[in-house]
Amino acid sequence: MCGVTGTLITVAPTGAESAKADVPALPVTLDELVATAKDCEAAGAALVHVHIRDADARPTLDPVRLRETVAALREQTSLVVQLSTGGSVHDPLEARLAVLDAAPDSCSLTCGTVNFGDDVFLNPYPFMLDLYRAAQQAEVVPEFELFDLGHVAALRRLIDTCGLPYGGKVHCDFVLGVPGGMPATPQALLAGVAALPPEVTSWSATGIGRGHLPVLATTLAAGGHLRVGMEDNLTFARGRAVRDNVELVERAVRVAVELQRPPLGTAEARQLLGVRPR
Ligand code: KMH
Ligand code: ZN
Fold first, then answer.
1. Per-residue pLDDT for 150 more than 60?
2. Which ligand is closest in space to the CA of residue 88?
3. I need a surface site. Which of 44, 78, 163, 211 has the fewest CB within 10 A?
């Protein structure tokens, strides 16, 4: 992975954990999501990691809404569209598998179960296998989500069992700082990076909460790519709430440019990840 030049910037604008009532700037309707996605693309994002909400702004995996969301994002942006198969901690495994029916470019695939605050984010190995094989079949590129060091070992096991994803690239994303997973520290990130299987062709990272900026800086220095967004962070700086997703993308772009790692365009991102051409 030496010689990495540009930076893939992923925006995760919504997530499943924050309530619209508590965070009015959270994009929860289709119109809000598309508007955010367009603004973030203009600011330098190339991939959008999508969780959707129902009419009451609650997390949902409704198949019709998912299809409409993929269609609208495709029509109005050229972003790589990644649907979350993690959903919320309350979503059943079958509904999470069915996310692939909405035919996104990419899907998240979390490489193991992890405590998630007071809840459990369930990802049993047989479910990971089913999801991986279904993604290969559907020609959807998985992004392997790594919340813990054990997830890196599980990624090795998955690749040994199932081979490479559709497109032949292996992209993973460290999500650091969930209460129950690896902490959002440079040390934890670098331990994870050192343990990645050689098949990995690119990786990104996001730090939740106060470790966000140290993780961002370490990621760029270590040749990784960035994920930012209100799914992961609601505080922009000490005592200052995030205004919107765009300012998180803009800040990531500023730092990346200073470090000679300018943002990748969406066509370059597609190449990096091996996603299907539109
Ligand atoms: N909402 C979390 C329980 C993913 O998108 O795949 C899971 C999550 C990971 O956000
Ligand atoms: Zn997510």
1. yes
2. 1
3. 163
DSSP 195-233: T--TT--EEEEEE-GGGHHHHHHHHHHTT-EEEESTTT-
Cα 252 to averaged position of ligand 2 atoms, centre (Å): 19
Among 42, 27, 196, 178, smallest CA distance to 115 is for 178
Answer positive or negative: Cα dihedral of 49, 54, 60, 64.
Answer: negative
Interatomic CA distance for residues 47 and 18, integer angstroms:
21
* pTM of the complete model beyond 0.85: yes
Whose atoms come closest to the Cα of 111: which ligand?
1
Name the percent of the chain in helix, strand, coil, to the closest 5.
Answer: 40, 20, 40
CA nearest ligand 1 atom 6, residue: 86
Q: What is the dihedral of CA 154, 158, 159, 164, to 10 degrees?
A: -130
Which pLDDT does position 2 carry in this prediction? 47
Ligand 1: residues whose CB is within 6 Å? 15-16, 84-86, 88-89, 108, 110, 116, 121, 145
pLDDT, tens digit, 9 for 90 and up, residues 191-236: 999 999 999 999 999 999 999 999 999 999 999 999 999 999 999 9
Atom number in ligand 1 closest to CA 110: 6
CA of 13 to the centre of ligand 1 (A): 12
Q: How confident is the model at residue 3 (pLDDT cuts 50, 70, 90)?
A: low
CB atoms within 10 A of CB 256: 23
Query: Which of 88, 90, 131 for a ligand 1 pocket mutation test, highest count of atoms within 8 Å of Cβ?
Result: 88
Kindly list the distances between the CA atom of residue 40 and the CA atoms of 12, 13, 77, 247, in Å, as whole numbers in the listed order.
10, 9, 10, 9
